[in-house]
Design brief:
Elements lengths: L1 H32 L4 H6 L11 H9 L2 H32 L5 H12 L7 H10 L6 H26 L2 H9 L4 H12 L1 H17 L2 H6 L8 H15 L2 H36 L1
Helix pairs in contact: 1-13, 3-13, 4-7, 4-10, 4-12, 5-7, 7-10, 7-13, 8-9, 10-13, 12-13
Length: 278
Amino acid sequence: MKNKSKVGKPAAHIILGIWSILILSILWIAVINSFKTSAEIYANILALPSHLHFENYRNALINSQLYRFFFNSVIIVGSTLVILTVICAMAAYVLSRFKFRGRQALITSIIFGMSVPELLLIIPLYSMLSKMNLLDTKFCLILIYVSLCIPFTIYVLIGHYNALPNEVREAAIVDGCSESKTFWKIMFPLSKPGLFAVASFNFVWMWNEYLLAMVFTTSKESRTMAFGMYALQNSMTFTIDYGALFAGIVLMIVPAAIIFMTFHKYIISGVTVGAIKG
């Protein structure tokens, strides 16, 4: 077993190192080409730009109106994460710390909800939202994303709350704190690693989500960054401005990269704690 462990760790490190180099290389190619002209990109896609053409970002944001889709995504994803954090943190805490009739059935239904493909939900969701006159609105996508992310978010947070020491909660109650005050003042702050971890995964999925945004919205006032990138790609058929296309790709990647670089410690600790002790 020790020999297998000694061989396995270096092999895993090599594989992860190669994968990291590959991802960073792709990101580097996108960044350098976002500052080049189409002619320079055609000449050598791997070469550094002769001059930094910042107008590529202006063309992507202003001329292609990518800024509309960018701000729509910021509003929709940000609002969804706030709602998810409040609802799912409370629900996961109750399911983790309290014993009541139907608790296991609720947890089972949450796990089942994670296995339902979103394609099966499009028709019933479209029918419901159409009757509520919510189609083609930001609120429509917020509702959809919240409902689809709840099972995964609660499931991850249950494992994280299970890992927190119950003695802290008991000490707070002995000191006279109510259950709600104990949760918001003590348990909720202690769950930051789990919250940041699950929020980061949800952010990446929602930021890159395309199918639901295409089906439930039709106007630029409601559609998200993923659809904006699709529209920008199609516009290249006529404008052939590949510098602007690479600039749009960078704008699409950067927010998710910033999230993971900023909260990577929380993400690693949040996932591992929930996995080991959940």
